[in-house]
Amino acid sequence: MRSRNVKKQFWISYEDNELFLKNAARAGLNGTDYFRKLIYDTTFKEPPGDRFYDVMKDMRPIGINLNQIARVANSTGNINHATYEKEAKEWNEFMLEVKKEFLLK
User: Fold this and answer.
1) Which of 8, 27, 73, 92 lies 20 to 30 Å from 98, alpha-carbon distance?
2) Which of 47, 55, 45 is nearest to 97 (CA)?
3) How far is CA 98 from its chain centroid?
4) CA 91, CA 62: separation in Å to the nearest integer?
5) Residues 6+ apart with CB under 8 A from 54
6) Domain limits, the chain
7) What is the pTM of this model?
């Protein structure tokens, strides 16, 4: 008895088909086996949610402030240590929050 009893049919462009066949040949597989290998061996990461992008927006002003401090330090040879330490502390705290929310779940 046949173990594969569900037929899938879909359309792809000529260019996609050429790439598919080329990759299958490079892998030493026929198209069916290559497609099956893609299904079983490929893992995709779930895209981050809206909260992730909100957090990245919050990160931008901190980076801008640190960059401005670095530009002044490079052009004048002086650095405002109090401002730098405040921004660096804020950056480190922010990164800890990001790790807790997105990496340590």
Assistant:
1) 73
2) 55
3) 15
4) 6
5) none
6) 12-44, 50-103
7) 0.44
The identity of residue 44, as a single letter, is F
Q: Is residue 103 helix, strand or coil?
A: helix
Residue 101 · residue 58 · CB < 8 Å: no
How many other CB atoms are found less than 10 A from the CB of residue 87?
Answer: 20
Q: Which residue type does 104 have? A: L
Question: Residues 21, 22, 23, CA angle at the centre, nearest 5°?
Answer: 90
Look up residue 25 and give its amino acid.
Answer: A
- Helix, strand, or coil (residue 14): helix
> CA-based angle 65:103:50, to the nearest 5?
70
CA separation for the pair 3, 20 (Å, rounded):
24
Evaluate whether 66 touches 95 at the Cβ level (below 8 Å).
no
- Helix pair angle (31-41, 14-26), 10° resolution: 80
